[in-house]
Amino acid sequence: MRFLRRSENAESASDTTTVDEETDDGRTPRGHTTPGKGRATPKRRDAEAGGRRRGPAPPPPRTQREASKLARQNRPSKEARREASADRRRRMDAGDDRVLLPRDRGPVRAYVRDIVDSRPHVIGLFLPLAALVVVAALIQVPAIQSYITLFTFLMLAVMIVEGTLLGYQTTRRARAKFPGENVNPLATGWYSFSRATQPRRMRVPKPKVERGATVA
After folding, report:
1. Are 126 and 159 in contact (CB under 8 A)?
2. Residue 21 or residue 49, greater confidence
3. What number of other Cβ atoms are within 10 A of residue 58's Cβ?
4. Which of 37, 144, 178, 196: CA 20 to 30 A from 20?
5. CA angle at residue 154 from 191 to 141, to 5 degrees?
6. What is the chain's Cα-based Rg?
7. pTM for the predicted model, two decimal places
């Protein structure tokens, strides 16, 4: 009888050792329960109030009238559109690359804009010259028309020369400033020429340098 009792005690000790070893190995022992998630499951009405509605999706519009009505319902208000447009305009004037047109993005184009904005250009008289040509066409005086035509041709020749020199200069300086960038001379020259033809107040993005400033 004593021998049997000792065997039972030995088996119990062996079982206890096995359970301890399993626990030390990091495996989940028997009888272990997973702790709760720490919060109560929300009720259905609370979940729906929070924006998580259950049930099938609404059917798509079947007619053009229903589609137009649904689009008007989902369209933002006029004030919201006006505020969004004003905010986008401010960011474009400030030179934010996230809202600028692809042609205006990047440090190279920002540098070219600073070069163009740092000094006045004869090309800036392009729009007033075009208006003068329209006025000359309306005036039925041959002498005045001839003088205006001659002046227009002279100004166009000066603008072409200045635009060519400006494009060459901006391309050369941009390549020296950004040696790792691919600066296309034709695209860079046309970009600087088109910006120089715009009046300073109408340029987008707005000029960040004053006239006469040194752009390194």
Report:
1. yes
2. 49
3. 7
4. 37
5. 120
6. 38
7. 0.62
